[in-house]
């Protein structure tokens, strides 16, 4: 639903839960990531004071690095901890368990020691599963490209019926994943709403941006959904097919009508002893051709998506 919440706080080395949350919220205060905002919101609700940062650095696809009271704090995924030589100890099993429940575990280290894990989860939108089922009924394969770890992605995919999972993808690599799908001979429609989705939206054959998303995403997309309802994705595809069908009908009618009408207007019937077409009647017939095409196109106003 785009409203992630803190679900679990697991501590290590005797660190207090509220203290860990306070440090994490202080670190994430300058971040615009939805998971970071969930941590800050939870700290605010518990009345925890935000600490002053001496240093802040965002590490794309990994997390953040900050300094509070002279101590280096790392907050992010498993990759960040491994690359920073932080031992995960016995919390790796806990992290895997949280991920298998569809939650996103974030590690927090203070200095060179792992301090704990904060897990954040977002409720799957009610219409997400319906939208995917509808896409399946239309013969469309559904893939998910996410920066989340594989276990979390698999848990969410299982809930909604996603066919293919592309997990632990760095923000700059999303467009490359779209290219790989296109290299398989597939026509790719990409649905996204964030800044990180913009290159992938531009790379896809059809970019579809969620209306509540960022301006950059909407600028990069071919289609913008006015609501944050994924059921609008199959609706957009249905409307596109109806529109193409209508265009083909209009072209067929226009070509057929003119193929018959123009020779008559030129007097071909007169050659064989028939009447000459009055110019007024010819003009009316020409107008009728345009009006009939327009009326056929107006039938699209009665379009109703199949739910």
Automatic annotation (TrEMBL):
Q: Which residues cross the membrane?
A: 251-273, 279-298
Q: Which UniProt keywords apply?
A: Copper, Copper transport, Ion transport, Membrane, Metal-binding, Repeat, Translocase, Transmembrane, Transmembrane helix, Transport
Q: What Gene3D superfamilies does its record include?
A: Calcium-transporting ATPase, cytoplasmic domain N, HAD superfamily/HAD-like
Checking InterPro entries in the record gives:
ATPase_P-typ_cyto_dom_N, HAD-like_sf, HAD_sf, P_typ_ATPase
> GO CC terms on record?
membrane
Q: Recorded E.C. number(s)?
A: 7.2.2.8
Which compartments is it annotated to reside in? Membrane
Q: Report the enzyme's class at the first EC level.
A: translocase
Q: Which reaction does it catalyse?
A: Cu(+)(in) + ATP + H2O = Cu(+)(out) + ADP + phosphate + H(+)
* Annotated GO MF terms: ATP binding; ATP hydrolysis activity; copper ion binding; P-type divalent copper transporter activity; P-type monovalent copper transporter activity
Listed under GO biological process in this entry are: copper ion homeostasis
The cross-references to NCBIfam families, in alphabetical order and at most eight, read: ATPase_P-type
Q: Indicate what this protein is called per its UniProt record.
A: P-type Cu(+) transporter
* Species this protein is from: Clostridium intestinale URNW
Supply the source organism's classification. Bacteria, Bacillati, Bacillota, Clostridia, Eubacteriales
């Amino acid at each position: 639903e785009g409203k992630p919440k803190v679900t679990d706080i697991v501590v290590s080395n005797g660190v207090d839960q509220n203290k860990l949350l306070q440090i994490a919220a202080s670190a994430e205060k300058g971040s615009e990531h939805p998971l970071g905002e969930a941590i800050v919101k939870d700290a605010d609700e518990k009345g925890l004071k935000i600490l002053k940062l001496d240093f802040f650095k965002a590490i794309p696809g990994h997390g953040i690095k900050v300094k509070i009271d002279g101590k280096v704090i790392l907050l992010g995924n498993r990759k960040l901890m491994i690359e920073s030589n932080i031992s995960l100890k016995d919390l790796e099993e806990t992290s895997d368990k949280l991920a298998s429940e569809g939650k996103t575990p974030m590690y927090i280290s203070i200095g060179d020691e792992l301090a704990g894990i904060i897990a954040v989860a977002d409720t799957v939108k009610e219409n997400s599963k319906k939208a995917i089922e509808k896409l399946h009924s239309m013969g469309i394969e559904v893939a998910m490209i996410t920066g989340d770890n594989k276990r979390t992605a698999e848990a969410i995919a299982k809930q909604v019926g996603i066919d293919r999972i592309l997990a632990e993808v760095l923000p700059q690599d999303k467009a490359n994943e779209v290219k790989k799908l296109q290299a398989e001979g597939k026509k790719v429609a990409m649905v996204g709403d964030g800044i990180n989705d913009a290159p992938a939206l531009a790379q896809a054959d059809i970019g579809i941006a969620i209306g509540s998303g960022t301006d950059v995403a909407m600028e990069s997309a071919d289609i913008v959904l006015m609501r944050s309802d994924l059921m609008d994705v199959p609706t957009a595809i249905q409307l596109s097919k109806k529109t193409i069908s209508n265009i083909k009908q209009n072209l067929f009618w226009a070509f057929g009508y003119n193929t018959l009408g123009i020779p008559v207007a030129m007097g071909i019937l007169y050659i064989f002893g028939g009447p000459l077409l009055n110019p007024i009647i010819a003009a009316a017939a020409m107008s009728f051709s345009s009006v009939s095409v327009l009326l056929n196109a107006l039938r699209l106003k009665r379009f109703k998506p199949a739910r």
